[in-house]
Amino acid sequence: MNMNMNHLWIIVSASFVFFMQAGFVCYEVGFIQSKNVISVAIENILTFVITTLVYCFLGFALMFGPTHLGIFGGNYWLLSHLPLAHPSLGYVFVFFELMFSGTAVTIVSGSMSERTRLLPLLIAAVFLAGFIYPLFGHWVWGDLFLNQQPAWLKQLGFLDFAGATVVHGTAGWVSLAGIIMVGARKDRWDATGCRHGWVNLRFHRCLFRIVAGKTRLG
């Protein structure tokens, strides 16, 4: 009974994180042009689908598998051997961690909404969910699934609180790299960084921003 309640609590918590995806979509829609609303929403769905496939097939093994030199994990490719490794959690833990991987990828895609083509965005999602996020996650959280020696970063005393660095820090740095590559909006900013004209805050966009804030905070 206690084990079933633990599983239920993890699933409910992961579902709340998944519900943040709706908040991310509303937040992005509130800051883009009306003509791009549908395409940005579809991009968010596609990136989450790609993240799910890549993280389950590759990322989870790198992040929580048996460690190799404290740098990367392995063994659980395609989610194989999970019930044997941890019968009490298994796929429930995968579902929980997948939601945070999806959050990291969605933050990156949202930072460049309506400014990138779909294919480069999906390629970035593959690299982030399959390599960048799992490797850094292994350095910090690599011993959460298996009772094994912590990876090198955790051995140095590094602690992460609620994904502040593993999820949001990683996504933030990748977003910054993407924004630098994309560059400033030429039609909105001049050479000095000042905005051209007045900011047009349309009513429906403000509503989306409010809904996004309530979804992500409450």
UniProtKB/TrEMBL annotation:
Residues 8-190 form the Ammonium transporter AmtB-like domain. GO terms for biological process: ammonium homeostasis. Keywords: Ammonia transport, Membrane, Transmembrane, Transmembrane helix, Transport. The chain crosses the membrane at residues 6-32, 44-69, 89-109, 121-141, 161-182. GO terms for cellular component: membrane. The keyword Ribonucleoprotein does not apply. The keyword Disulfide bond does not apply. It holds the Pfam family Ammonium_transp. Its main location: membrane. It is a multi-pass membrane protein. One of its GO terms (molecular function) is ammonium channel activity. It is found in: Membrane. Belongs to the ammonia transporter channel (TC 1.A.11.2) family. This is Ammonium transporter. It comes from Desulfosporosinus metallidurans. The lineage of its organism: Bacteria, Bacillati, Bacillota, Clostridia, Eubacteriales.
